[in-house]
């Protein structure tokens, strides 16, 4: 069943998506742990997302950061507030 038929979206409800991400985190932790032989890095870019334009009623954010969660070796690229540089 293809994406156009709703197959992928239909299968990726909240619970199943969470299970898939949990497996991803476990696999990456195993690869990066002291027993792992692979150097595993997850690199993602959030450049050009309008995070600094979001206003939830108390003004726009002064700084945006990414919380380092359950996995190691994650690199996230974000725009600086001025939009001129890259923050990691």
| H and E order | HHEEE
Instruction: Note the main sheet.
Output: 3 strands, mixed
The rounded distance between the terminal residues' Cα atoms is 38 Å
What's the number of structural domains? 2
Total helices: the number is 2
The gross shape turns out to be extended
Please tell me about this protein's structure:
The chain is an alpha+beta fold. The chain folds into 2 domains: 1-38, no CATH class; 41-88, no CATH class. The protein is built from 2 helices and 3 strands, in the order H-H-E-E-E. A 3-stranded mixed beta sheet has the order 1-2-3, with no helix packed on it. Strand 2 (74-79) and strand 3 form a beta hairpin. The chain is extended and about 45 Å long. The termini are far apart. The model has no long low-confidence stretch (mean pLDDT 74).
Supply the key terms.
acyltransferase; 3-stranded mixed β-sheet; 3 strands; 27% helix; alpha+beta; single chain; extended; 88 residues; 2 domains; acyltransferase activity
Topology:
Layout: H1 7-11, H2 14-32, E1 42-45, E2 74-79, E3 86-87
Parallel strand pairs: 1-2
Antiparallel strand pairs: 2-3
GO molecular function, one term: acyltransferase activity
Family: Belongs to the plant acyltransferase family.
Keywords: Acyltransferase, Transferase
Q: What's the short version?
A:
This protein has helices at 7-11, 14-32, and strands spanning 42-45, 74-79, 86-87.
């Amino acid at each position: 069943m293809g994406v156009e038929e709703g197959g992928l979206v239909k299968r990726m409800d909240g619970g199943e998506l969470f299970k898939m991400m949990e497996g991803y985190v476990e696999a990456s932790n195993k690869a990066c742990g002291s027993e792992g032989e692979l150097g595993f890095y997850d690199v993602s870019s959030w450049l050009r997302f309008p995070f600094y334009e979001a206003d939830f009623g108390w003004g726009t954010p002064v700084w945006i950061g990414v919380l380092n969660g359950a996995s190691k070796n994650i690199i996230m690229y974000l725009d600086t507030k001025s939009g001129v540089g890259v923050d990691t």
